[in-house]
Amino acid sequence: MRQAEVLYKNNLAGLLTQLDNGSFVFRYHDTWFNDSSKPSISLTLPKNKQQYESDFLFPFFYNMLPEGSNKQLVCFEFRIDASDNFGLLLTTAKFDTIGAIKIKKVETK
């Protein structure tokens, strides 16, 4: 299992988890979900549900990934399997992204 905090404008909005079977769960943080002034992170992940499940990486997060030669370069430099979309997301979306969302890996102990 791998997890990442989803930050909206540097504030914790939720948790993205890849389960051992390869499926994904996105869950809004309790305080974010219960605060009506906080927006949804995406139109495809509205705040009418607190938890979403998917067999593949949610399209919102998948669209944050590099493509083409940029993807090849990142995979080569960081030794990431090209089919490891979650690993690629953890590597590329932690600092500078287009938009308000950043992804920060949760370190396991």
UniProtKB/TrEMBL annotation:
<keyword id="KW-0808">Transferase</keyword>
<keyword id="KW-0418">Kinase</keyword>
<dbReference type="Pfam" id="PF13657">
    <property type="entry name" value="Couple_hipA"/>
</dbReference>
<dbReference type="GO" id="GO:0016301">
    <property type="term" value="F:kinase activity"/>
</dbReference>
<feature type="domain" description="HipA N-terminal subdomain 1">
    <location>
        <begin position="5"/>
        <end position="103"/>
    </location>
</feature>
<protein>
    <submittedName>
        <fullName>Serine/threonine-protein kinase HipA</fullName>
    </submittedName>
</protein>
<dbReference type="InterPro" id="IPR017508">
    <property type="entry name" value="HipA_N1"/>
</dbReference>
